[in-house]
């Protein structure tokens, strides 16, 4: 594709698929089983971090790190119960198909891998539009490090100035900003507009349907 192309890089959870609150409940229960009472609103704001980082963020550096793997495994098992019915956000698939038709290289940048990623892709139902997937397994550091976004740009073969990154969390906006791409926030993950703008969002939309309806004159024009 080379530098003549444009890349649209998408976070998946909370951006294209309505999973953030399912993650919150699964993390809450995993923490509870390990003897920790962690408020759901705190978990919600941490969603989007890689598992180990999320546990560290919520329990702090004084925690018993021997529990980390069990807590993450607990979340993974609990969350796995939803794989057969993950709900796509309105027009998520249509948005990716439209961008693909318009000549964008569409890349997913997600901390999900394996069966989870397969379930997310089934929910989005736009495989023909997705050129590549940058998963957590491919990078040393997850968001808010710029690595996942930089890796997505490498896969797309497009420089940062010809790319847009769409996400729903402050971690997404920070990662995109650090990678030097234009950042677009969506509100469907439940994070407030002000938080997204403060973290680097150049534009904010309600959800994929809103972004699709604004394509002609919006951030992806």
TrEMBL record:
Any Pfam family matching the protein: Hydrolase
Listed InterPro entries: HAD-like_hydrolase_sf, HAD-like_sf, HAD-SF_hydro_IA, HAD_sf, PGP-like_dom2
Gene Ontology terms for molecular function: hydrolase activity
Gene3D superfamilies in the record: HAD superfamily/HAD-like, Putative phosphatase, domain 2
Enzyme Commission number, as recorded: 3.-.-.-
Taxonomy, superkingdom: Bacteria
Family annotation (PANTHER family): BLL8046 PROTEIN, PHOSPHOGLYCOLATE PHOSPHATASE
Protein name: HAD family hydrolase
């Amino acid at each position: 594709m080379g530098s003549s192309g444009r890349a649209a890089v998408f976070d998946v959870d909370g951006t294209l698929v309505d999973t953030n609150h399912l993650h919150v409940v699964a993390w809450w229960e995993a923490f509870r089983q390990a003897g920790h009472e962690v408020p759901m609103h705190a978990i919600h704001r941490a969603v989007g971090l890689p598992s180990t980082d999320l546990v560290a963020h919520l329990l702090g550096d004084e925690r018993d790190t021997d529990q980390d793997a069990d807590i993450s495994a607990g979340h993974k098992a609990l969350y796995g119960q939803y794989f057969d019915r993950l709900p796509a956000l309105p027009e998520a698939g249509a948005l990716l198909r439209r961008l693909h038709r318009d000549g964008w290289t569409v890349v997913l940048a997600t901390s999900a891998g394996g069966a989870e990623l397969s379930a997310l892709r089934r929910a989005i139902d736009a495989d023909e539009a997705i050129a590549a997937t940058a998963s957590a397994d491919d990078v040393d550091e997850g968001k808010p490090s710029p690595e996942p976004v930089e890796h997505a740009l490498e896969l797309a073969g497009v420089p940062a100035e010809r790319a847009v990154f769409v996400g729903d969390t402050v971690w997404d906006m920070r990662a995109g900003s650090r990678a030097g791409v234009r950042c677009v926030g969506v509100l469907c993950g439940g994070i407030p507009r002000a938080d997204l703008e403060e973290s680097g969002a150049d534009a904010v939309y309600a959800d994929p349907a809103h972004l699709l309806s604004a394509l002609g004159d919006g951030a992806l024009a």
